[in-house]
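Phospho-2-dehydro-3-deoxyheptonate aldolase structure dump, as promised
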Amino acid sequence: MTELPVAQTIANPQPGAVDYPGLDAWRDLPIVQQPTWQDNGVYQAAVSELSSLPPLVFAGEVDVLRERLAAAAEGKAFLLQGGDCAETFEGATADKISARVRTILQMAVVLTYGASLPVIKMGRMAGQFAKPRSSNDETRDGVTLPAYRGDMVNGYEFTPESRGHDANRMVQAYHTSASTLNLIRAFTQGGFADLRLVHHWNKGFTANPAHSRYESLAREIDRAVKFMDACGADFDALKRVEFFASHEALILDYERALARIDSRTGLPYGTSGHFLWIGERTRQLDGAHVDFLSRVRNPIGVKLGPSSTAEDALRLIDKLDPQREPGRLTFITRMGAGNIREKLPQLVEKVTASGAKVLWVTDPMHGNTVTSPNGYKTRNFDDVIDEVRGFFEVHHSLGTFPGGLHVEMTGDDVAECLGGADPIDQHAFLDRYESVCDPRLNHMQSLEMAFLVAGSLGKR
Ligand SMILES: O=C[C@H](O)[C@H](O)COP(=O)(O)O
Ligand SMILES: C=C(OP(=O)(O)O)C(=O)O
Ligand SMILES: [Mn+2]
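structure tokens r here:
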């Protein structure tokens, strides 16, 4: 595994948090990638406030998601999970949120057709405000300051004030998540998700001559929609879609403060998002993150990078899903295009042989990060697609189900990843690179990925 920054101290049990046996056990375990809050008084007030605020998501919705993911683990649904590497407070505008939701809905329509399966739609949204970093510091022009760790922890601006770890930011992350979720719920329940509308947007994609190779698939989808119409399909019923929120559960002060006891079952749920995942840098078997997430009822994801062994995967299953509960555990592999065909088979084989039923999802972004010649963190579209293809190939050859796609994407016309049919080159980065952390597929690259993946799914 990657070299990990040293553990930092966390203030003692949080004032105001709900009481439930074991929810604070993580405090005695090794923990990495946590902030060093600069003011203890502010910290105490922030977690106390978070503990008293309403949950962002409801336990019943979380249970529905678990059922949907259980179907995906059985090959009866496909997960599409996408959004920013790092959401920002400033970026939580109606335009940017709607563009992202719209792009995910557009991708989902294409994938639904390609897979002939329901697609579970999930944003890396409404909570994706904290980042693990390779280095604790960043140096610019001889000045060294703490690394940017996401808007929940510090500011991106390169000044000592901004880079200090401010616990008040957790409260702002909560409120920004609440307003983001509010808009997502309005869009996905209020008519914006109408299948005919989303299909109409997709026509814009294939109208671009650079995307002519996707025309025949687009025509097939068009015929399918017309066929549904002719059969009298109830399009009004297709105006609303389920949409789930997810993020990396990194800052345990925040996650702990938002744990709530479900009044129906008396069990603890993380209410900061429907689906919470453990990152590649925080998946230590005896570490704090695995312990805390083992104790909440949400469906949990774990990122598995190229150093993951089958033994790691089996032990994670034992810790996070001891009951082997359908939909509880998702492995999000992020091996890199050059590794996936070699490394993934042994994991899938051993996990399958153990009898565990996890959902396998590919994150084709994080194993394919490179630096462009002009110095930007980027990814080649072809590498990203190659990892997705490798993921499908491995699962097809083992007879297991490639259950989903996890991508860093945006609905905006940014230039952060190289390539695509209407190619982005590195010079475009100078004007259109907006990410504060990892490079995202832009709107067109995201749709192109959906068309390519739909093609592969259709061949199954
Ligand atoms: O999003 C993932 C990580 O936070 C990110 O890849 C780390 O990037 P770094 O290596 O620039 O710290
Ligand atoms: C930090 C991330 O990924 P990973 O944990 O796989 O490196 C991420 O998803 O942005
Ligand atoms: Mn990232």
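The chain has 14 helices and 14 strands.
lmk if u need the other ones
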